[in-house]
Write a structure and sequence with these properties.
Low-confidence stretches: none
Order of helices and strands: EEEEH
Radius of gyration: 14 Å
Helix content: 10-25%
Strand content: 35-45%
Organism: Parasponia andersonii
Protein name: Dynamin superfamily
Number of domains: 1
Number of helices: 1
């Protein structure tokens, strides 16, 4: 979906892919959004679509 420029220390930076995972749930009437980090993938931070859009604009301008 996009790339994020990560600082890895010592002035080094790396590009890493950002992925979007979608799952179909027939009982849901509206989409649910959550952000997951690599450090703790079991912990999902639930967000609204406007919150996700703002975060995306902050990182990818």
């Amino acid at each position: 979906m996009g790339s994020q420029l990560n600082h890895v220390g010592g002035g080094t930076k790396t590009w890493r892919p950002i992925t979007l995972h979608m799952k179909y749930h027939p009982d849901c009437e509206s989409p649910l959004y959550s952000l997951v980090s690599d450090s703790d993938p079991a912990l999902a931070n639930h967000k609204s679509l406007p919150e996700v859009q703002v975060l995306f604009c902050i990182f990818f301008g």
